[in-house]
Fold this protein.
Amino acid sequence: MALLEISGLTKRFGGLSAVDDLNFSVKQGELLSIIGPNGAGKTTLFNLMTGFYKPTSGKIIFKEKDITRSKPHQVTRSGISRTFQMTSIYSQTTVLENLVIGQALHAKSGLCSSIIGFPSANRERKKIQDKAEEILSFVGLEDKRDKSAAGLTEEAQKRLSIGLALSTEPELLLLDEPTGGVNMEEISGLIDLVDKIRQLNITICLIEHKMRMVMSISDRIIVLSYGKNIAEGTPDAVANNEEVIKAYLGERCVF
């Protein structure tokens, strides 16, 4: 059964269709990669899926519920979380504090009870701290626990950004170029992290330009060009698709 279903999804900016009558589904437990040349509509699609943009037409169904017009925080609460192409972290705090903040934003106790110091709020704070420590270890940043997030390498910031997305305990995780700006020697570590996330039974939808990563970890690939789905299938099928090869001419895409 599909976890997410996209039907007839269209987003126009003036006379330009950034996403054009898109139809696809994401199966429970799979890793679906979305690829395409720059300007193909990939990040616009993620913005639609997470409520940052409202579609011109079409529907987004998640767990059989229509979330097409939901606000970003409602989408997150429904079980979808994301990272961003430009790494989004709380740069003025430590690595651990970033993850504590991420947990606190989704805590059950209200602000009032936290200030007053109700026992339930104290328990919530302990739970938040423990969960932040757990995620810190999971994404491999234990040795940077008390360092400023602003001073992290690009690769470590990507790990922290993924950790923040995991703080919401998503069922569907959207990763927007998780290896962007990361050198080739560091990519294998991020691939391993994505594999670890899959083992948690989290479904993953990935936007990525580094084709070696896409081809090595994807169950299925969708190729966008000018907002349209021009190909869909296994990595082998997509790599040998003539239309895909044409769409990537000039992009220096190596399969």
Summary: The first helix runs from residue 42 to 49. The chain has two domains: 1-79+170-255, 89-169. The CA atoms of residues 232 and 238 lie 7 Å apart.
